[in-house]
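Example (one chain per record):
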Amino acid sequence: MSSQTREAPRDGGRGERLMWITAQRVFYAGLLGAATERVLGGLGVYVSPTGAPLSIRIGGGAWQSGELLVVPPQVPHQVTTEQRLVFNLLIEAESVDPSRLPAFMQHCGPADAPAFVRRVREAHARLLEASGSGSFEGFEFDTLFFGGPLAPRSIDARIRAVVDRINADPAAQTSAEECAAAVGLSFSRFLHLFKQETGVTFRAFRAWKRARSLLRHVRQTASLTDIALDTGYPDSTHFSHSIRQVYGLRPSDILAGSRRLVLHQ
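Predicted structure:
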C-alpha cells in the first residue's frame, strides 16, 4: 500500500499524533476535542492510550466508562476523555461481515478485550517508529490491529458496483436514480436492496463517505470553502452543518486540532 506523509510539528519531541487512512480503514491517534454527539458511518473503536478510562454516552443515555469503547455504525454517541490523546479505529461497515467480527466488536459501549487494547497500543508504537521513515509499507492494517484479516461482507454485485463508485469519488453528485439505472434496477428496488446489502440507506451511505473524505484534507492549508467544494459540498455552510452532525465538531475545529498530526494515506 502506498503511503504519503505530511510532516507536522512534534508533541514534546515524541510526535504521538498520526492518522493512517486506507480505503476501508482509519487509525487515528490524536486529540478527541470537546465533541458533541457524533454519528459515524463506520464501526468506531476507541482505545485509551494510557489506561485512564474513556467515557461514552449512547444516544443521550447514561455515561459509561472503560479503556475500550465500541460503537456500531450510525449510532449517535458522545465520547469524552481527560487525556490529551485518544486512539480511534474506523472500520467501513460494508467491508466486514458483522456476524463474523471478533466478539468484543459485536457490542455497543464499553467492552472487555485487554489483549486487543495492548495490541492497539503496540501498533501505535510501531507506526510511530515507521512514521519517521515516511512510509507504512509492509504493514497490513487488519493484521497489525486484529492479528489477521477481518471477514469480508458478501454484497450483491450490483450494489457492490455502486459502493465502489461512491468510494472512488465521494465528492461526485451521484443520485440514487442514476445508480439504479446504471445497474439495471428500478428506483424502489435499488433503494431496498442497497439498505438490505449494506445495512444503511443510500443517502446516509453517501453522506458518510463524503464526510469521511474530509480526513484526507486535514493537513491542507486551503480555505474551508475550497475544502468544502473539493469534498462535494455546495457551500461552506452546508459543509459545516454536515460535518458537525457526523463528527460533533466544526470543520475549523477539526483542522485546528490536526496541526500536529502526521498523515499517512
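Caption: Residues 157-199 form one domain.
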